[in-house]
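Example 396, ligand adenosine monophosphate.
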Amino acid sequence: MTFRSLDTADLAGKRALVRVDFNVPMDGGQITDDTRLRSALPTIHFLSGKGAKVVLLAHFDRPKGKRVPEMSLKPVAGPLSDLLEQPVAFADDCIGAAAQAVIDGLENGGVALLENIRFHAGEEKNDPAFAAELAKNGDLYVNDAFSAAHRAHASTEGLARLLPAYPGLAMRRELDMLDAALGTPVKPVLGIVGGAKVSTKLDLLNNLVARLDRLAIGGGMANTFLAAQGHPVGSSLCEHDLGDTAREIMAKAAASGCELLLPVDVVVAREVKPGVATRTLALDEVGDGDLILDAGPKTVERLLAAMDASKTLIWNGPLGVFEVPPFDIATVAAAKKAGALAEAGKITAVAGGGDTVSALNHAGVADQMTFVSTAGGAFLEWMEGKTLPGVKALEV
Ligand code: AMP
């Protein structure tokens, strides 16, 4: 994949239309987590520092093509201005006279935020006429919203066809890291896939077994594999109807030379409650009424050894019900090991997906990992081997 570089772009006095992800959690008009604003700062600073007029495009929530006052981006302008330490002008429409007036008023290096692009139905329809209206406000297009790149919308795809298109700094780093983890990784590569269900991660498992040297399967989805091998799983979360699918994935792994690491022991309880009594069992000891809620110590030991033997780790999904201690033990142990190896430069460790980010934060190691993607859907689609329209449109 080849992209244009902002480093060599002519930016002074140019209007840069920058797609960012400002879909922040909000409670009563107050932002409760400003991570997404912070991740856009390097690109905004860079462009502003080069004298560009920075025009920010973003969606917020799901107004479905209508103007919904509660879904305005206006409450974001103040906190963004505080983080940037410079004024942020707000336009109450992303196209037309309102947008143009605000952009015309920008000095070189100035920053404007335009109202929620999803107030227009043309955004999610990727309507060329709407994209053309957006394009009138820019001389170049920068996409810094990897998390929206799995959608072919006007502001993520259509615009890239109308203006010289560049990945922003955060997008670039995300693409570089994803490439280092799965595109052209240093081998051997270990994957960890956990979480609740096999059914939501079929494409992901199929893609990974064809590409990785080893794949550890944990969480509720491991139960489906154990059951498919004839092991008892008691009352655990398990998709019994996916036995054939699980066996196909195991056969595909064997044919592609990917070693599957399934649990060799499990931690069970009778209910999912903090501090409840647990038992560690060998696979065939799981009884009726038992709930498998975490991987056992032998499984963890084998996983940590696999990490020691790998140069690259790609991780999505917890190994147990990590939200309810003590069922966080396996996930935390694996996270700490990954963080320590990454910090010591022994492994490239990339992780992503909503629950994975919470699990790494819970283990206190998110900062030690080589890269943690907060992109959710886009990260998963990329792990599934799909082409992301918002990334493809940036390629030259
Ligand atoms: P996902 O969104 O598919 O990555 O699933 C994440 C969820 O899987 C978390 O909320 C975990 O609590 C849950 N999970 C992990 N292991 C198990 C398990 N053994 N039984 C039930 N749920 C689990």
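Summary: The radius of gyration is 23 Å.
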